[in-house]
Amino acid sequence: MKSNTAKLLAILFLLIASSNFYGCGYNKLVSMEEEVNSAWSQVENQYQRRADLIPNLVSTVQGSADFEKTVLTEVTDARSRVGQMKLTADDLSDPEKFAAFQKAQDQLSGALSRLLVVSENYPQLKSNENFLQLQSQLEGTENRISVERRRFNEVVQSYNTEVRSFPTLISAKIFGFKEKEYFKSVAGSEKPPDVQFDFKKEEKKMSNEQ
Predict the structure, then answer these.
(1) How many whole angstroms separate alpha carbon 46 and alpha carbon 91?
(2) Tens of pLDDT, residues 93-122
């Protein structure tokens, strides 16, 4: 009898505890945090896709005579820095790590943008089928990165709102649910990249070709 009573009490306790967790938003927080992690995975996938395209792009551009070497160096260095930075799901609540990750990715975006602008001054690249395909893939990937970052911010906003709302904030504090960081707009991103092109060098090159 005592054994059966103990089991019933244990079951009753679990039912009450589960009900309390649900009432305080624990289960909802778990679900919403999983949505944040899923959205983050999609962001990572697009960043990785871009990183995988860069070696072929650099190799193709290097085949163009007198291409601006500083631009290529900037791209390869930026890609290297990005490759050294890994952000886990737990790091999404760390402002410093998240800011450093975004800064590195944004620097790579800027370097790639400058490379594509400079490439417009090289007719042989503009007629290179491989380069054109890589350019198209990179532009498409940048668009997908923008889409996934926006979706991530939207999911994080919903999650953060829930974490700060009463009575869910009680469960959030007890079980360690922390607010997540957002992607922030890059200052000056609305302006085209400032690329200094050596026109005298290009005029001399065209004169020699004639």
Answers:
(1) 19
(2) 999 999 999 999 999 999 999 999 999 888
